[in-house]
Amino acid sequence: MTGARGGTVAGPGPRRVSGAVLAVLAAGLAAFMAWLVLGHRAMLPWRLQWYLPLHTVVETLAVVVITQVFSTGGHGTGRRIPARVALLSPAALAVALLEFGHLMSVPGMPGLIAPAVPGSGVVFSLAARLLGALTLLAAVLVPRERMVARSVHALAMLAALAAVGAGYWLVLAAPGLVPATHVAGVGPTAFKTACEYLLIAINGVAALLSLGRALRHGRRTDRYLALAAAVMALAGVAFVFSMARDDAVSMVGHLYEVIAYLFLYRAIHVAAVQAPYLRLKRSERSLAESESNFRSLMECAPDAILLAAPDGRIAMMNARAEELFGIGRDSAAGLALDVLLPGAGADGQGDVVECRRLRQDPFPAEVRRAATPAGQQIAIVRDLSERSRLERALLEQLTYDALTGLPNRRRILETLDEAIDAARQERRTLAVLVLDLDEFRKINSGYGWAGGDEVLRECVTRLAQMLESGDTLARQGGNEFIVVQKHSGQDAAGALGARLLGAMREPFVLGGQRVFLSASIGVALLPEAPCGAAGLLQMAQVAMGGARAAGPAHLRFHSADMEQAIRDRVDMEAMLRHALEHGQLALQYQPRIGLEEGRMKRMVGVEALVRWRHPVLGLVPPARFIPLAEETGMIEELDLWVLRTACARAAAWHAAGLPLGRVSVNLSARQFQHPGLAQRVRAALEDSGLHPAHLEIEITESTVMRDTEVAAGVLRSLKALGVALSIDDFGTGYSSLSYLKQFPIDVLKIDRSFVKDVVIDANDAAITRAIIALAHGLNLEAVAEGVETAEQMAFLQENGCDEIQGFYFSRPLWPEQLEAFMAREAPQPTT
């Protein structure tokens, strides 16, 4: 049932009774009834002649109170009323009419309605209380929030009158249908007693349900309904234990009925009268609070708020509006709103306009305007001055480099687009130059980022001095700069590039020291074919990459060959990745032959060489894909594949009894620098079952000399596995002999560049003799690569070379070819 919460809203109205007082009152009524039931009725002063006048007074009071229940519930405010009220109000009228029938038909009354006999009066009483109990239970079961239309109240009224008609018909027209309720000289019948117990049960259930709701929600209506039902149940108890219809206990029951009706009236009054009144007071207070909150919100709002009357004259403004427009509220009152907000539409939703200040410059603002149903106008003005400043600063950050103040890549692309359009219209060309400082990392490493920034700023100064009017300089990022030469050609662009290269050759002074740098420049001329800014800049970038590949301080013009080379490289990279994933790689093995004085020995080992068998390109030379693998990082995966495959194949050959000797595997610099190299080699040996003594790891001289201390540690960890170690391409690097003696190596391999002309070039012959002598002096084996003639082999034999490797003895062999070769080399069993 809807209504005001008990004790939640203060204000004028009927005095409220607290829950504690009601609980004490209920407990007192229950205690008094228990006292009577337990046999103390004789203590009550009572005369039989009192019964009729007292009964008449009490029943009249009951009819009056229950009629007030009907009247109060039927005249509530609002188009919709609580469902409980719609049930209880019509039922109250029916109960009043039935109670009136009871009053007029008891013995001693005139009998105007029914014969004044005990049976008629009891039937009226039972009918009234049964209708009241059932209606009360139904009202308790209805959700308290349920509201219904007044038409429902009218229908309930018709139903209540029908119930009254049925009751009067039973008493007047068909008295025999109802069993006897009273036997003269005996008292109430079993039927009457059963009816009383039924009424006690119905009222008791209604009381418990209402009490539960009251405890959960704290509603006063639920409390009063619970008390009404409980007291009505106590009245039923009195009627059960009454010895005669006119004794004191029966009179107490009638008094309890009046009390129950009073509680029911209180519940109806709260639901139908007091609750709407309190809702109205709450609405008024809420409206006042809303108005106060609105004013507070206006004053606290960060935006200016102006309220205007329907005629457009300002009626109210907040403090922010006073500050923003530079005018006080009193001065602004009556001023036309359009004076301060020119150009803002009456229904503007975020229009940006120039607002006026009375004594200052105009300012940009976002204005939102709306009209109320009463015709008043509301304008909310947000100052955009700071946002405009931030947008300009952000745009500058997005389009200009913070360090140098030059346009950045984004801005130069916009400029270049404009320059291309102008060049097309004027039928001229233009050039884009991309300049990259060579080895700039050494500046940051040696002098810190501050030193690098100082160099970049100096670069800007020098480059700007080389440009002519109309040329644009920008910084792409890092140590790259872009120059747009708007009036250009190949000669002009080349001349400008030469001047820029010259400017970069001049020494930079950092910390009192002279530092020398150089630059690489790529140039792209606007082609005749359609080309946008990004495409032209990309062409210059490609040309710069070509210049860097040629070495420091070079300039290159863009050509189609450069683009094709890049596309070929990208395609080759994708195909190599595919080859690694789909097993297109294979190994060839080149035998290593031992030398003794005057003759060759048998094969003492092989070197594993990776090959790429492409289904379309055929056999791709290692020189074409090994450098690509190193640049892209795929070399690490390729090295692991070669190591595992070579170990597995070698283990199988040794298990078959073939005279393989050692298998040597080359490791790249990237693989050598991996912190888990020794673990990877151990895993390959363990997985394949190859004995460590049958594996030789080859590392190039330049790799071990990058960081000799780290290299020595890695070589020792590999040596601890039991594998052999060799330095490949020895003599081509810059090795220090003092470090060489610290490395735990077993073999020095003489590079093929020395062996090639060893017979005809005295210098190569001297270097080769020195390497062989050095190897033997360090108790190492000397192995010559690239031996292709008998003269080369003879020279190597004469000078004590231990092993040779090259086409003179055997080209690289596929596994099945090597197996046949080893089968011929294997010693034949004696018969």
Automatic annotation (TrEMBL):
Pfam families per UniProt: EAL, GGDEF, MASE3, PAS_8
Highest classification ranks of the organism: Bacteria, Pseudomonadati, Pseudomonadota, Betaproteobacteria, Burkholderiales
InterPro entries named among the record's database cross-references: Biofilm_reg_signaling (IPR052155), EAL_dom (IPR001633), EAL_sf (IPR035919), GGDEF_dom (IPR000160), MASE3 (IPR033425), Nucleotide_cyclase (IPR029787), PAS (IPR000014), PAS-like_dom_sf (IPR035965)
SUPFAM superfamilies (alphabetical): EAL domain-like, Nucleotide cyclase, PYP-like sensor domain (PAS domain)
Provenance organism: Massilia forsythiae
Coiled coil: none
Protein name as it appears in the record: EAL domain-containing protein
Domain GGDEF, first and last residues per copy: 428-560
Stretches assigned to the EAL domain: 569-826
Keywords: Membrane, Transmembrane, Transmembrane helix
Residue ranges annotated for the PAS domain, each copy included: 290-342
Membrane-crossing segments per the record: 20-38, 50-71, 83-102, 122-142, 154-178, 190-212, 224-244
Classification via PROSITE patterns: EAL, GGDEF, PAS
Signal peptide: none
PANTHER family: BIOFILM ARCHITECTURE MAINTENANCE PROTEIN MBAA, DIGUANYLATE CYCLASE DGCP
Stored CDD domains: EAL, GGDEF
Gene3D superfamilies with a match to the protein in the record: 3.30.70.270, EAL domain (3.20.20.450), PAS domain (3.30.450.20)
